[in-house]
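User: Before I run my own analysis I want an independent prediction to cross-check against. Here's the chain; please return only the structure tokens and, at the end, one sentence I can use as a sanity check.
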Amino acid sequence: MKVEERLGQTEKEYAVIELQLKKLTSDYEIEKSMWEQEKASLQGKVDVANRKDEKIIACCKSMFRKFQAVRKHLGVIRTLKIDEVDQMNTWVPNFQEMLDKALGFNAKLVSDTMEKYKKELSLRRKYFNLVQELRGNIRVFCRVRPLLEWEKQKGMGTCIRFPPTEDFMLEVPSKDAIGGKFIFEYDRVYKPDAQQRDITEDTSEYVQSVMDGYNVSIFAYGQTGSGKTWTMDGPKEDPGVNLHALQELFKVVSERVPMFEYTITMSVYEIYNNAINCLLSDPKKKKYRLRGRSSETAKAHRG
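Assistant: Structure tokens:
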């Protein structure tokens, strides 16, 4: 009798466990189905995002190719305009002398011709400075200095790479960049083997704009030891931008002597630690300070 009671009790417990197992199995199937649906939904979102990224990358590549094509086309136009200006500059200095010989100092005819010449010169200045504006009123050049001897002795190297076919771009390898490298673009990049004359040749055209009445600023920016003083001043045997710019300035003046008279003045100031020092006078006698104005400009005043 006891055996039958135990058997009945065991069957009831088995039925209860079996019922619980079925319930757990059903819950598991429901959770599994919901998880698979969510996984499929998330996978679909990932696929959509990947397709969008691919479209964005393709669009960026297309825009970059178009930009390169426009840049090359602009370079061709710039070269043609500069060649025209150079050709005009070759005969302009001798124009007065040719007129004197050909016209026999005919004052009326020379005067009329000179008026036409001045108009042509004004037009040439307009076209030249239009080319400058097309190239950009603000231009940024990058010069990479070579490693110094003590840097080489310590085994230091450079992380900058220069594309072989481009002179306006440099690359810096990085794991954080798309494609494994950061790309920087400038109006011109000078490699470590660039000479002083390479830099001064590119800045000589700005002197032409100065003589045409435009304000021009040429300055070097960079951290200590990056080569600013070398580029701007340079040694006596290999001068930098400052001296070459002055030489070009006086060259243009000499070419225009028959038609124009110029008065050239020069000031040399040093700004160091917010102090302004005139390098052409006794620093003990003259002091300068900056004064702000409501137009958010500042001028140096003698104090």
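Sanity check: The first helix runs from residue 2 to 91.
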